[in-house]
Design a protein that fits this description.
- The protein is α/β, with parallel strands linked by helices and 509 residues long.
- It folds into three domains: 84 residues, no CATH class; 187 residues, Endonuclease, Chain A, CATH 3.30.870; 164 residues, Endonuclease Chain A (Endonuclease, Chain A), CATH 3.30.870.10.
- 46% of the residues lie in helices and 17% in strands.
- The chain has 19 helices and 17 strands.
- The strands form three sheets. An eight-stranded mixed β-sheet has the order 9-16-15-14-10-11-12-17, with helices on both faces. It has a seven-stranded mixed β-sheet with strand order 1-8-6-5-2-3-4, with helices on both faces.
- A hairpin with a 3-residue loop joins β5 and β6.
- The longest helix is centred in the first third of the chain and has 26 residues.
- The radius of gyration is 23 Å and the shape is globular.
- The N terminus is likely disordered.
Length: 509
């Protein structure tokens, strides 16, 4: 019975259909190219034209090189593979929906020029980062927002439950992964109760991120409980590049004035209830105040792109359900990164922090797969005398990706970057702190998928309480980690060759 059930499982059927399509594609193409010399010559010429076109595109150089090498190795197949999978942007249908909604929401992102001028007067270089975010991604910088940093998932979850209990008007949740267990169970208990009380509860999750974890009728189950629910970019049993673009964001908004983000999904490993990879180290941040408006808009923009609703924006603003003034706690700027445009916002914020640092930059990332621009920024900052430290996991969640991460150590170490591996287990945090003044906490991994393919979010903050909280946690985490030396990077010929090949195709992972 168990095997029959597994055979009809959605994941199994989808994988089987994709494999059949891939096999048919290969056989058809082999027959086609064997039909005549002219057919093979045509596809070789097509690959050459596509390679030239790739060279001329304004794209990341690492990505272009990977595809050009693949086309060189497979002159017949390479061009067609690029046409099928080389486009980093979402499908036309998805872009059309998201672009239309984004244009409708642009007027809601209003920058208070006094606040922007204030951060620039206080620190011009940091103000330039805020100016970049506002100009090229549209997200304002705010004052009147209190921050609280969380060094571990358990602490953030405790406050999430407390704030959910206080909800009176609406709750918005957007997560990459939801998994049945203690964390989701406790959250769902509150959501059901709040929905029954008339609170507007909306839940959005990524279909691929939760593919192996949730039943196929999960959305219908939630709707039956009064919880509006939507799966982002549902997996379909067809070979398509559109499956590359995932909603990797983690957003919780309560009554418009309280918001959470960070690396923490709704699954038990994130609160160390279970230990699949040792101790799970993650980070998050809570905002209370005006800056939560940007997270509210991020959620609503994604939601109404696929479930059209007439929105009265005034019903969701921070002061709608709380009249008293919010406390000032430095400057806070939530932002989102999207594959819809040609602006690598998340990467550029990291690069700017490295370029402008004078004393130190501490970075947490589960995957260290930087492109040439990021590597250059790290190495140059270290060569300038900046104390650049990066913490990655000691225990891998994906062995091949962990090997790829370690393959980038040597050139960074040679430049003076200090790298540590978190020995108690897996570090899933995506955070950066700089010079006791500025920090970032969010969902952005330092790999190609996060930086170029996924929908991501984060909070950039300056002179907020969270800055020194993040620094203290960084030093504590580094003290519990093992520093990497160049000696352990020494490998034999074949291992070095394998690492080189992995790095060559890293942008395609």
């Amino acid at each position: 019975m168990r095997y029959i059930k597994a055979f009809f499982n959605r994941v199994f059927i989808t994988a089987l259909l994709i494999l059949i399509q891939a096999g048919w594609f290969v056989l058809f193409f082999m027959k086609l190219t064997a039909y005549s010399h002219w057919t093979g010559a045509f596809f070789s010429l097509l690959s050459l034209i596509i390679a030239v076109r790739i060279i001329g595109k304004d794209e990341n150089s690492d990505y272009k090189i990977s595809w050009i090498v693949l086309i060189t190795i497979l002159p017949l197949f390479g061009g067609l593979l690029y046409l099928c999978f080389g486009n980093k942007k979402p499908s036309k249908k998805m872009r059309k929906k998201l672009d239309k909604t984004h244009n409708e929401y642009l007027s809601q992102y209003v920058q208070d020029e006094k606040i922007m001028n204030g951060i620039k007067r206080d620190n011009l270089r940091i103000g330039e980062i805020s100016g970049y975010l506002q100009k090229f991604s549209g997200f304002p910088v705010y004052s009147g927002t209190k921050t609280k940093y969380y060094p571990i998932g358990e602490e953030m979850f405790e406050d999430m439950l407390a704030e959910l209990e206080r909800a009176e008007h609406f709750i918005f949740l957007e997560y990459f992964i939801i998994d049945d267990g203690l964390m989701w169970g406790k959250t769902l208990d509150i959501l059901k109760r709040k929905a029954a009380q008339g609170v507007d509860v909306r839940l959005m999750y990524d279909d691929f991120g939760s593919l192996f974890l949730l039943p196929k009728d999960f959305a219908e189950q939630m709707e039956s409980l009064g919880i509006k629910c939507m799966a982002f970019n549902p997996l379909v049993p067809f070979i398509s590049a559109v499956m590359n673009n995932r909603d990797h964001r983690k957003i919780l908004v309560i009554d418009g004035h309280t918001g959470f983000t960070g690396g923490i999904n709704l699954a038990d490993e994130y609160i160390n209830r279970i230990h699949p990879h040792g101790h799970w180290k993650d980070t998050g941040i809570m905002l209370k105040g005006e800056a939560v408006w940007s997270f509210t808009l991020m959620f609503l923009e994604m939601w109404t792109s696929f479930r059209h609703e007439d929105i009265c924006f005034d019903d969701y603003k921070p002061f709608r359900w709380r009249k008293e003034r919010f406390k000032d706690d430095g400057f806070v700027q939530p932002f989102s990164d999207t594959p819809l445009d040609d602006e690598n916002v998340g990467e550029n914020v990291y690069i700017e922090m490295l370029n402008q640092a004078e004393d130190y930059v501490y970075i947490f990332t589960p995957y260290l797969i930087p492109d040439n621009e990021m590597k250059t920024a790290m190495r140059l900052a270290a060569k300038r005398g900046v104390d650049v430290r990066i913490v990655t996991p000691k225990i891998a969640d994906k062995k091949m990706v962990h090997r790829l991460t370690r393959s980038y150590y040597r050139p960074l170490l040679k430049a003076g970057v200090r790298i540590y591996e978190y020995t108690p287990g897996f570090i899933h945090a995506k955070s950066c702190v700089c010079d006791d003044t500025a920090g970032v906490v969010g969902t952005i991994n330092m790999d190609f998928r996060s930086l170029y393919l996924h929908f991501e979010c984060a909070a950039f903050f300056y002179k907020s309480s969270a800055v020194m909280q993040l620094k203290e946690d960084s030093l504590d985490t580094i003290a519990r980690s093992e520093e990497v030396s160049e000696d352990i990077c020494s490998k034999g010929f074949f291992s070095t060759l394998l690492d080189s090949l992995l790095r060559l195709i890293a942008p395609l992972f």
